[in-house]
Amino acid sequence: MPQPIYEIENLSHRYNRQPVLEIERLTVANSSILGLVGPNGSGKSTLLKLIAFIFQPTEGRILFQGKPAFPFDEAIRSQVTLLTQEPYLMKRTVFKNVAYGLKVRGERGDWRRPVHDALNLVGLDAEAFSRRQWDELSGGEAQRVALAARLVLKPTVLLLDEPTASVDAASSELIRSASLRARSEWGTTLVIASHDRQWLHDVCDDVVHLFKGKLAGSGRSNMIFGPWFREDDDVYGKRLDDDQRLWVSVPPSADATAFLDPGDIRILGEGETVDTAATAVVQGTVIRLALEKTSGHLFADVRIGSLILVVRIAESRLATMTLHRGWPVSLAYRPANIRWR
Amino acid sequence: MDFILAGFIEAVRLLFGGDGQTWSAVAATLKASTGSMATSLVLGIPLGFVLGYFDFPAKRQARLLVDTALALPTVFIGLVVYAFISNRGPLGEMGLLFTLPGIAIGQTILALPIVIALSATAVESMDRHLRTLLISLGAGRRQLLLSSLWEVRYGLLAAGLAAYGRVMTEVGISMMVGGNIKWHTRTITTAIALETGKGMFATGIALGLVLIGIAFAVNVCLSFLRKR
């Protein structure tokens, strides 16, 4: 079995004694694309900085290519690179920003060719942009230059923290395609944190969920936040925008988050009924259909008010069902199947 | 008012006529200030970087000490240095009293807290993303330090300029430690004090113009460097 590029064991990190990340075990396969999803504060950025070796974890260890690695190790310098959410460049020209990594790596010779290639890769005209100063760029251009500065190194690992959060749509597309080209051309391992779940599920080999600093499963999942209101002794629910109620089992606390597996939700066929004593039903509209790359399963994103639930459509039902975007559907699920964190 | 105007006219004559005493004071000032600035920058910038960049025990107290030292009166520094390098002091045998190196030592003590405090402020204002960026691009510890300093270079230049201005215009240290000896340790500022006291306004004004001229020339050079 090929060696993973990362092996994380009993990782724990604290800021001012506050725990922010606790991961028992996580591996990342070489040349794979791993997605990280989770709400703000779930630990995605911290995890990326730890595996970028920006700082050391409070406890635990991270193996890189089978060996323990630490900040400033020769083995990881220029091999692992992180692109942060906010575009940030050094106070120098675009050319010098992109060439900086080549300079610190001690590469001699003419840097123009690799710098120009990297700028072209992110959709920037090298001749037009090379001499521009860092403060003469738009946000999207700055983020693309920042990405070029990493791609010029042809890194073994490229870590992307919300790479398209602060940029325009055109820049966003260029950043995404350039990142994926790194994998296809150089076998670069990508680890991407993003709120764009659709994109992650489209491009990633696996998607890992983080919640309050801990792993909360992988693949597609529904993470539903409160507040929860109490209808009866053991009946709780969430009020949705369209006056519907999403009934759940008893939450362990007022701020608990519900997890509902896409396989535990069923799209009801026309005229189909369910046992309402144990099953809840909500009405929604299909907004997206997607075929998962790794499993081959079909998934539907269904909007119910402001909530979007991901539903896995069983193969046995595909032949009997007509679905397309904008189609109204009824979803059935058992509140007892909800997991809480 | 007439005497001020006459003073300006006489100042131009002294300067462009190559008056010996005038230019001797200028040379003494430049020698002492160059030595003190070089020392305070070499010591102060790294110390300021450490103070601004790292978290360590008693960091707040260290910063408090440095900030307090900013307000040290020049005559007090002059008095302390005099006590150390006079014949009765622990460094009396080094023969530094009434010399330009002695003045430079006092001016270094004056300039050092300024360089440390303003360098620390410049480093503290560094974007928090810079460290992540530099490490992400493969910088080692040494490159991290040098590149970080380069990124805050304008703040460090400002620290140097502020210290230089203070050093160039101080009187207390030069007077007490240097002794205002003609042709030897008479600096621009001690000369101005002396000549004005004698009623020789022309010389005082001339020396004042030189001070302003030096400050202007330094700022022009730095402005040129900033544009590059």
Written description of the protein model:
The complex is a heterodimer of chains A (341) and B (228). By secondary structure, chain A is α+β, with helices and mostly antiparallel strands. Chain A folds into 2 domains: 6-217, P-loop containing nucleotide triphosphate hydrolases (Rossmann fold); 220-340, RNA polymerase II/Efflux pump adaptor protein, barrel-sandwich hybrid domain (OB fold (Dihydrolipoamide Acetyltransferase, E2P), Beta Barrel). Chain A has 8 helices and 21 strands. Chain A has helices at 44-51, 94-104, 112-121, 126-129, 139-151, 169-186, 197-203, 315-318, and strands at 6-15, 18-28, 33-37, 59-64, 67-68, 80-83, 157-161, 189-193, 206-211, 214-218, 222-224, 229-232, 235-239, 245-248, 258-260, 265-267, 280-291, 298-304, 307-313, 328-333, 339-340. In chain A, strand 12 (229-232) and strand 13 form a beta hairpin. The two termini of chain A are 34 Å apart. Chain B has 228 residues and is mostly helical. Chain B has one domain: Orthogonal Bundle (MetI-like fold), CATH 1.10.3720.10. Chain B has 11 helices and no strands. Chain B has helices spanning 2-16, 20-53, 59-69, 74-85, 100-124, 129-136, 141-151, 153-169, 172-178, 188-197, 201-227. In chain B, helix 2 (20-53) crosses helix 8. Chain B is globular, with a radius of gyration of 20 Å. The relative contact order of chain B is 0.18. The model of chain B has no long low-confidence stretch (mean pLDDT 89). Chain A binds chain B through residues 49, 52-54, 71-72, 77-78, 80-84, 86, 88-91, 100-101, 104-105, 146, 149-150, 153, and chain B through 127, 129-133, 135-141, 143, 147, 151.
